[in-house]
Amino acid sequence: MDSTRRAALAAFLVLSAPLHSQPDTPAFDGAKWIWFSREPMPITTAQSFPGGANYFRAALTLPDPTGLETAELLITADNLFSVYVNGQLAGESEADHSAWGNPKRFEVTHLLVPGRNVVAVEAINTMPGPAGLLLKLEARLAAGPPRVMVTDETWLSTDQETPQWEQPGFDDAGWRAVHVAGDYGAAPWGRVVVRSALVRAGEPLDERRRQVREALEGLKEAARTGVGPGPRPVREVIPPDDYPWPEGVVFVGQDCSLYRPVHHTGTSADSLTVTIFNPHHTRAFPEHDLPAPVKMGRQLLALRPARPGVVPEVLVDAGPGAIGSPSVSFDGRWIYFSMVRAGEAFFHLYRLSVEEGELERLTDGPFHDLEPAELPDGRIVFASTRIGTFEEYHQPPSRALFVLPAGGGIPRPLTHTFIFDNEPEVLADGRLLFIRSDNFFDRGKVETLLHAVHPDGTGGYTEFGLELGPEYGDRLRAFHCGSPAPLPDGRVAFVTGSSIAVGRPGCAARDLQHLRVEAADVAALPDGRLLCTVVGRTPLDVARKNGRQPNPQYRFEQLALLDPDRPAGGAVIVFDSGGDPIHSPVFLGPRPRPPQLVAKVDPHRADDLRATGELY
Asked: What are the strands of the beta sheet with 369-374, ordered from one edge?
């Protein structure tokens, strides 16, 4: 056989080798979902477990001498976990309610000893609902089969945290046997896939892990008490003497947002209130049946210049009415906002001349018109209930995007949705980015995404959140987002459930940059810095006394500046209200106008009633 044929035969044998010769993907085969319960009979996942932290223990015996070569631990918990091996912290989940969908892998060889080895887990269910712990530890020996530990009915558990509970010598005789919630693969979790890289357990806490640990402690306390821990104050830095302060900032004061009440009021405000659910009082749209809040206040305020020590100027006072969603024209001459006057039934659009102070009403009618923004061609885009449809499940009026001609006239629909389009902003490339709340599954459940369209309503494409997998089985994608803020370099910042995310349109979730700042909202400055509202330092008794914000733990009272290119640089505080909840800051001044894209739709043909079709 010549060398060419031998090489070809060798290549064929390699390519035709059986697939089982490839390294196996780590999996939880053999493990069971377990949880703690005081009920005498096992609880199924169809029932709700209470929120709170539970504690679990089990032991694995290794021979003496062990002959141990490697040991790997796979773990996840719905929702969060910290795992200990022989009393040492091996690792923890991310501080994310949906972190159970991303199991962790820890190399624990150095933590194991001959004889009895104890694995202890603190697992947190952050709110009532399905809960479970899933774990598999495999110790490979030099001789003989591997020793394997999995979560099953032999584990012990409790809901009481006791000193030294994670230590090997702790007496757990009083703990209960766990309840098995289901085998690996059971609903609602399915066969979660391990994608995380293998990391060495027990490494010293770096700054990021320290932040995760602090967040886990806060979430544990929130689950135990049923009261959210509230955002942490931002890390403040003192700016240099030559710090470039913005020439102006507009924001909303005296927060009176229509947070979801216990009872209806019997007024037209109920048509907005029914669509509002956000326990953190930020502009991040939560995963829920209903979209995030429409943030409102009593006063429209301005800081000119925007720097500490400047007293805010009241531009418009709505009195018993309400003001919200301010924006500024590209030339800096006009401030647009939404307002309902005292005695009126609906929010409408207004514009205020920055120089003359003249106020002009732009829309009218029995509709809520909200969140105006100027387009590059001078038209005004806004969200409105005037689309005339109703969300199918809770029946509030749908909100679609409309455009108002630059010279005034009749608003025209830009998007045609029967759910909710919110918070339109213009991207640096001239397209329009907004929050789309959309239906999924087989009923009016809502999830949110960041969607973009051409300024004429064509070319719709989801830019953030589309690639996320389902959070429960084949159902819900959990993507908390809101307050989109396009940056001049093409990136976009937006608030999430626990941070400010920054990324380029179309990037995957793993490529987003997260600024570890718990903000209520975010806006961009022309120089690329970010302006946001963060928690204040007013004592709780003062916050309770002012009575303006239902949950005093979420007191967003400070305006802060961040540099997304220096994420560790901290925040510069621009203004502290001293107890008055504020929100929705935007830059007041001229900024570059994005390109005006050529329309793809002939407006004359669009007005022809015959220019239509059928949607199947």
From this structure: 369-374, 380-384, 400-404, 412-413
Task: Please name the amino acid found at residue 336.
Answer: Y
pTM reported for the whole predicted model = 0.66
pLDDT in the model for residue 209: 61
Q: How many CB atoms lie within 10 A of CB 7?
A: 10
Q: Which residues are CB-neighbours of 138 under 8 A, at least 6 positions away?
A: 71, 72, 146, 147, 148, 149
Whether 227 shows a pLDDT value over 60: the answer reads no
The DSSP result for 132-166, as a single string, is EEEEEEEEEESSSSPEEEE-STT-EEESS--TTTT
> In CATH, what number does 249-597 get?
2.120.10.30
Query: By the 8 A CB rule, do 482 and 435 touch?
Result: yes
The alpha carbon of 261 is separated from its chain's Cα centroid by a whole number of angstroms, namely: 23
Do 249-597 and 24-225 have the same topology in CATH?
A: no
Q: What is the edge-to-edge ordering of all strands in the sheet holding 461-464? A: 420-426, 432-440, 445-453, 461-464
Among 138, 13, 121, 39, smallest CA distance to 77 is for 121
**Which value, in Å, is the radius of gyration of the alpha carbons in the chain?**
28
CATH architecture of 24-225: Sandwich (2.60)
Residue type, 470: P
User: pLDDT tens across 481-527, in order?
Assistant: 899 999 999 999 999 877 899 999 999 888 889 887 889 999 999 99
* Residue linked to tokens 């455009």: 403
Cα–Cα separations (whole angstroms), residue 313 to 518, 573, 576: 27, 18, 14
Strand pairing class (104-107; 198-200): parallel
Mean per-residue pLDDT over the chain, rounded: 82
Residue 248 three-state SS = coil
Tens-digit pLDDT profile for residues 275-315: 444 556 788 876 655 554 578 889 999 999 999 999 999 99
The predicted structure's pLDDT at residue 22: 36
Domain ranges of the chain: 24-225, 249-597
Q: Determine the Cα–Cα distance for residues 583 and 534; give it in Å rounded to an integer.
A: 9
CA gap 331, 616 in Å, rounded = 44
Q: How far is CA 1 from the centre of its chain?
A: 64
Sign of CA dihedral 445, 473, 450, 233: positive
